[in-house]
Every structure is written in structure tokens, then in C-alpha cells.
Design a protein that fits this description.
Number of strands: 33
Mean pLDDT: 83
Distance between the termini: 77 Å
Radius of gyration: 26 Å
Largest sheet: 10 strands, mixed
Low-confidence stretches: 1-39, 52-76
Structural class: alpha/beta
Number of helices: 13
Shape: globular
Length: 517
């Protein structure tokens, strides 16, 4: 038993107190965690021994208080949920080639979604709702619009209190290695390891690694608390999946205690069957476990801070990616824990997944909804008026604020902010991202008088299975239906692409009157 100056009692299993060497190592680890020995290399043999001890023997901590002359033992589990000891890193993603052309002029996290939001709003809002107020966003490609959105939405409204939101772009530093841009997710964090030597990070115990292009709602502190209670060095948030989707993900095998023992990246055939596990270990019912016998990584991780820094700087200094390198290698040497997230989650990594996830918001009820008063999704404040709808029919659709709809039919579609939809227009299975600015009535009239096309959709136009990027100008009597079923086409000179059978009208493009696509 050890009693500190503030009367905190630490009770450990007897084996944890035998000898002084283990106690000394523990002190070293905590000192490193607090930043005093940040640059030093940990002894892996000692670290693995400590990890095994933490895994097999749970430590009990209590604080002793006195009330009305009587001693009272009070559980301090709340300390494990203290968000002040957690920092999050949101990865801005790579070039976004699978989401092209939506990423032609913007980073993946800056892609609009749901009519009024951007993808970055999802992890940012999850952090806010979880009480985590120390957030770094690492960016490299087309980051201007993302930085602008972050500044408008999160750096001026005081929701982070004494915390911070910092967007950190890839940069070059002196030395040969400093001349390289981010080579992957792990390398991006490695290049900014010095952040955790900052005084603001002294109290940080755990680091949450997030992706900026996923759609889900999650209390990160539930995840962190599970990580701390398990005694794990690394925890991975995972989802149970069925046979149909399993081969699209990196899969994990776990033992009967939920510890990750092996990985397989997008396995097929017999390799896929070999990755089946008993998911009741993670809390699924027997019926659910039979339907979903695989667990896939969400790409959301919690690391002990000292473990993360030493993995990046010393153990795997050339590994560039968390999912395919750091995590699989670490599972052989450290305690890696699987955390079940059995709720809606979608990786918005392709044009098809982006399109489907948007239209799924119109379902009754939707699998995911932005409407949650207790855990809202935040975005930038735009001060736009309500939408104006005149003589139109709306079926299973979402209309964002500041839009003008006149005598049109909107079916199973998303209409983004500041959209203009003209008379006798028919939209079906369409995602409009909206506009960044308004054109006045006088400007619209002048453009029409000159035979030009104003922002929005002109009268008598029919559009189906299409994504219309911001500020696009679609003229009168246009038909966009891809009636020939083309799957892939590059018609950028004409203002559009076809990706996975979906027509994508480019940002700021012009589709002239009478065009048929």
C-alpha cells in the first residue's frame, strides 16, 4: 500500500510490489509520459513486461475522504474519463483520388455532406460532444478550404474553452529527412512528434487518432475509458461485419479476452474464412455474432502517449502507415485491445460511398441522422435565411437553408445551401452541394438576357443519379441521366465526369442549355 500526500491510496496485487526494480521502471514510464524524458528510447523488454502485468493484474485505486468524522472510500473511476488528459489528431487524408473530382480543389475532410456540413465536422463534433478540447488536424493536399472552414467554425466560438484547434500543414524542415512530405498516416504524426513536448501536452496520457472522412457519431471518452480499464497499450475501434463486406476491410482476429492477435488486409477466399471470430466476446448477441462473424478496423485508435512516440521514433522509424504497418507489427509485441462500436459507421472514401451515404440520410428512419439535440453535429455559422419553396413537390428529400425552389419536383435527393432550382425541374437520386454565394435577381436576369447560365438549375431540366458540385451552372432543358449506363468517363472539358456510373458535375462548371448527358 502506498499513501500519497493528498491521501490517495494505491492498492496493488502483491506481485506488483515485490522488489524495487519494477517500481523504478514504472516511475520512469510516468516521467516519460509527462514529457520530462520525451526524447529517450524505452526499453522494449521492460515495456512488454509492464504491459503483460497490466493486462493480467488490475490495479485498484481509491481515494480516502472523511465525512462527518467517518472514513469513506470513494471510487475514482471518473479520472479514467477525464478528457483533459486526451489529445486527438485528425488525419486530413491523402490526395483523395477515389473521391475525385470532388477533391480536385479541396481536401477530403472539406467535402460537403448532408446539404450543410463538411466531413471534418463529424470528428470535430464528436470531440466536442466527448469533452475533448485539444485537437490537431494534419493536412497536406488542397487544404485552403479546409483551413478556412475550421477557422470559421471552431476557432472563434469558444466551444473549446482553454483547449485549442490547430490545423497543421505538411512542411519541410532542415535535414535530409525533413525534405519529404507526409508519406502516410503514421509518418504525418511522426513529423509532428514535437507537439507532445509542448507545455500544453504535459498532462496528456493518451492520443486519439481519427480520420477526417468517416460518417458516424461516437463518444470518444467511452472508447478511451475502455482503453484505460483494459490496461492496453493500443486500442482499436472496430465494427462487426458480415461476409458480404468483410473482404473490403482490414480484419482482425482476437482471443477470448478481446486482445488482438493478428491482422489480414482485405482477405479473400480461405484467407477470409480464417479471419472469422466469435464476436460474442465483444458483446454481440449469439444471433448477431452468427450474422457478423468478422471484425474490421475503423481506423480509429487510442495510443498511450509514450507508446505512440516510441513506436514512431524508435521501434518502427521507417513505417509510414498505422493500419498496414504500425498496428499489425505492434500486435506481436504490445497489448492491442479491440473495442466494439456496434453502430452506424461509413467510410466516405469513394464517389459511390459518398453518394449512397448522402441519399441514405433521406430514409425513414435514417441509419444516421444529423438531427440529435443531445449530440449535435456542428458546422460554420452562415446566418442564412430559411429556404423558400413555391409550388414544388418534395418527396423523401432534404432541403438545406437559404435555397429557392420554384414549381419543381425533388425526389430522394439532397439540396445544399443557397441552391436555386428553376421551374419544371425534376431531380431524382441527386446530391446538390449548393453554392458559396448568391447571385442577385438583377445579376440572374442580366445573365439570362445575355444567353448565359446563372448558378443553379435552369427550367425544364431533368436530372437523375447525379452529384452537382458547388457553384455549378446547369442551363435550361438539360437532361442528365446517363441513359447508356456508362461507368467511367472523363469529360472534364465539358464540365463533368462519370464515376461508378454516377455523373459528377464539376465545381464552377457550366452545362449549357439543351445539353444531354
Amino acid at each position: 500500500m502506498v499513501v500519497s500526500a493528498d491521501c490517495r491510496i494505491s492498492l496493488s496485487a502483491p506481485s506488483c510490489l515485490r522488489g524495487s526494480s519494477r517500481f523504478t521502471r514504472h516511475n520512469k514510464l510516468r516521467s516519460f509520459c509527462n514529457g520530462d524524458l520525451m526524447g529517450k528510447k524505452l526499453n522494449l523488454a521492460q515495456l512488454r513486461s509492464s504491459s503483460t502485468t497490466n493486462f493480467s493484474q488490475k490495479r485498484i485505486q481509491m481515494s480516502l475522504t472523511s465525512v462527518a468524522g467517518e472514513s469513506k472510500v470513494q471510487d475514482i473511476e471518473s479520472e479514467k474519463r477525464d478528457p483533459r488528459t486526451v489529445a486527438s489528431i485528425i488525419l486530413g487524408g491523402g490526395a483523395g483520388t477515389r473521391l475525385f473530382p470532388l477533391t480536385k480543389r479541396r481536401a477530403k475532410p472539406a467535402v460537403p455532406i448532408g446539404g450543410a456540413y463538411r466531413l471534418i465536422d463529424v470528428p470535430m463534433s464528436n470531440c466536442i460532444n466527448s469533452g475533448i478540447n485539444k485537437v490537431y488536424i494534419l493536412t497536406q493536399y488542397n487544404s485552403a478550404s479546409l483551413n478556412r472552414h475550421l477557422a470559421r467554425a471552431y476557432n472563434s466560438n469558444g466551444v473549446f474553452g482553454d483547449g485549442f484547434v490547430e490545423a497543421l500543414a505538411a512542411t519541410q524542415t532542415p535535414g535530409e529527412t525533413g525534405k519529404k512530405w507526409f508519406q502516410g498516416t503514421a509518418d504525418a504524426v511522426r513529423q509532428f512528434h514535437w507537439l507532445f513536448e509542448d507545455a500544453r501536452s504535459k498532462e496528456i496520457d493518451d492520443v486519439l487518432i481519427l480520420s477526417g472522412d468517416h460518417l458516424y457519431r461516437m463518444d470518444y471518452m467511452d472508447f478511451v475509458q475502455d482503453h484505460r480499464q483494459s490496461g492496453a497499450d493500443i486500442s482499436i475501434s472496430c465494427i462487426p461485419i458480415d461476409d458480404r463486406r468483410a473482404s473490403d476491410f482490414g480484419l482482425m482476429k482476437i482471443d477470448e479476452k478481446g486482445r488482438v492477435i493478428s491482422f489480414s488486409e482485405k482477405p479473400k477466399g480461405d484467407d477470409l474464412k480464417a479471419m472469422a471470430v466469435d464476436t460474442t466476446v465483444l458483446g454481440l448477441s449469439k444471433e448477431e455474432a452468427e450474422k457478423k462473424p468478422y471484425i474490421a478496423s475503423m481506423g480509429v485508435y487510442v495510443f498511450k502517449k509514450e507508446i505512440l512516440l516510441n513506436l514512431l521514433r524508435w521501434r518502427f522509424p521507417t513505417a509510414n502507415d498505422f493500419g498496414s504497418e504500425i498496428i499489425p507489427f505492434s500486435a506481436k509485441e504490445f497489448y492491442v485491445n479491440a473495442y466494439l462500436f456496434n453502430d452506424y459507421w461509413e467510410d466516405i472514401g469513394t464517389i459511390r460511398s459518398f453518394f449512397d451515404a448522402n441519399l441514405a440520410l433521406t430514409e425513414h428512419p435514417p441509419a444516421f441522422s444529423f438531427y440529435d439535440a443531445a449530440k449535435p453535429i456542428y458546422t460554420s455559422r452562415r446566418n442564412l435565411p430559411p429556404s423558400k419553396i413555391d409550388g414544388s413537390k418534395l418527396v423523401d428529400s432534404i432541403i438545406s437553408h437559404g435555397s429557392f425552389l420554384t414549381n419543381c419536383l425533388i425526389e430522394h435527393s439532397i439540396v445544399g445551401i443557397r441552391s436555386r432550382v428553376g421551374s419544371n425541374v425534376q431531380l431524382k437520386d441527386t446530391v446538390m452541394l449548393g453554392a458559396d454565394f448568391y447571385e442577385t435577381e438583377a445579376e440572374v436576369a442580366a445573365l439570362l438576357a445575355e444567353g448565359k447560365v446563372p448558378i443553379g438549375i435552369g427550367e425544364n431540366t431533368k436530372i437523375k443519379e447525379c452529384i452537382i458540385d458547388k457553384n455549378a451552372r446547369v442551363g435550361k432543358n438539360v437532361v442528365i441521366a446517363n441513359s447508356e449506363g456508362v461507368q467511367e468517363a472523363d469529360r472534364s472539358s465539358d464540365g463533368f465526369y462519370i464515376r461508378s456510373g454516377i455523373t459528377v458535375i464539376l465545381k464552377n462548371s457550366v452545362i449549357a442549355d439543351g445539353v444531354v448527358i
